[in-house]
Amino acid sequence: MPxxxxxxxxxxxxxxxxxxxxxxxxxxxxxxxxxxxxxxLPTLEGYAGVLVLGGSPGATDDEVAPWLPAVRxxxxxxxxxxxxxxxxxxxxxxxxxxxGGAVDRNVNGQTVGVTPVGWTDAAASDPLFAAVVAARPEPxxxxxxxxxxxxxxxxxxxxxxxxGGEVQAARLAPTVWGVQLHPEADRxxxxxxxxxxxxxxxxxxxxxxxxxxxxEEAHAALAATWRVLAQGFAGLARSAALPGDGRGASLxxxx
Length: 255
Description:
By secondary structure, this protein is an alpha/beta fold. Helix content is 36%, strand content 23%. It has an eight-stranded mixed beta sheet, with helices on both faces. α1 (18-24) packs across α8 (219-240), α2 (68-81) crosses α3 (90-98) and α5 (187-196) packs antiparallel against α7 (208-217). The chain starts with a strand and ends with a helix.
């Protein structure tokens, strides 16, 4: 069975819901906890794709998270090989920076909770997102982020924007995608993030209980939407792993 390399930055940012959905899509996961100094990222030989998860560091906080340069290099290698690659939140930001873009604090402040997804016209014909758009033309997603991509790599295509106009999803290279949203998150995952932000949110007067209840209430809609993304990504990985296909050449041509 084809294998995805999964880069996990910290314990409270796991693949969560995405893990079972990817396995349903016909791929295995090799999860590497890069915050462990003993873990060394492998080369991508033999992998069918890459999933880079979220985390609390900034995309260029190399002194805080010394493994980030290796992750950015991994994204560049994946792009050069034509391997399907998906970055979630921090993973999205790392991919954007790795390929020539920029990330900064969101001038509109932290985005948290269940947020509408604003598809662009390009999403309907995207090799990965077209099926998601067809299944859910007006979806919602979980957000929990301070930083956003402020400049895209050359040739990147915006696939969705938040109500505030921030990049919410993008094709960063022919076989590399990033989502600022959290398609993998459910209430237990978000509750851990809420706990770490409890003091900040209390000072802002933000009702965390209401945020968590909204995530729970939206669970069915969230799962129905983002399972399609996970299984579509697994399908691209299976195609990339087929013998003699040039490691994703057909995907590059499609985009």
